């Protein structure tokens, strides 16, 4: 399938959303890609932040799945870079480290204008990944009604 400038790909006359996955562990990228594709979501993967940044400009994803500890660039730097892009694409954070690191990154993301749709701690169950991917690309507008107290994570 060819990459496009929109966040939707067309395959055999069906519309398919695209996510961009970045994790320095190829096995995690493959796992997320397999689960996403079984859900009807196309996934473009990268194993470095630099490759992710290049793909971001050509893929225009509906959502981003991002490891927050990588050797070439950490989650803080990548979230700051995403904030500079100003596109408001939701991000799902993944980490094998303490959840407090992800909590700190959520606060930084808010300050950068990046919406975090959720967090997963590695290793994670397939059910948790499916729920997080659903929330990433199919946010429930009714869950965020003004005045209800619902907010982004």
TrEMBL record:
InterPro entries per record? Bact_response_regulator, CheY-like_superfamily, Sig_transdc_resp-reg_receiver
Look up keyword Phosphoprotein and say if it applies.
Answer: yes
Q: Which domain of life is it from?
A: Bacteria
State the UniProt keywords alphabetically. Phosphoprotein
Tell me which Gene Ontology terms the entry assigns under biological process: phosphorelay signal transduction system
Q: What SUPFAM superfamilies does UniProt report for this protein, alphabetically?
A: CheY-like
Where in the numbering of this chain does the Response regulatory domain appear?
18-137
Keyword presence, rRNA-binding: no
Positions where 4-aspartylphosphate occurs in the chain: 67
* SMART domains tied to this protein: REC (SM00448)
- Protein name, entry field: Response regulator
Native source organism of the sequence: Nisaea acidiphila
Q: What is the lineage of its organism?
A: Bacteria, Pseudomonadati, Pseudomonadota, Alphaproteobacteria, Rhodospirillales
């Amino acid at each position: 399938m060819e990459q496009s400038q929109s966040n939707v790909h067309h395959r055999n006359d069906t519309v398919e959303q695209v996510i961009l996955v970045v994790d320095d562990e190829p096995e995690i990228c493959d796992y997320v890609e397999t689960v996403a594709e079984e859900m009807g979501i196309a996934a473009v993967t990268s194993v470095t932040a630099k490759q992710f940044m290049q793909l971001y400009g050509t893929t225009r994803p509906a959502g981003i799945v991002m490891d927050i500890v990588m050797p070439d660039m950490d989650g803080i730097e990548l979230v700051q870079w995403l904030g500079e892009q100003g596109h408001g694409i939701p991000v799902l954070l993944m980490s094998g480290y303490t959840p407090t690191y992800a909590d700190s990154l959520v606060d930084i993301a808010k300050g950068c204008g990046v919406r975090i749709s959720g967090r997963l701690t590695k290793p994670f169950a397939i059910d948790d990944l499916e729920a997080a991917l659903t929330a990433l690309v199919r946010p429930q507008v009714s869950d965020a009604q003004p005045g209800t107290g619902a907010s982004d994570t």
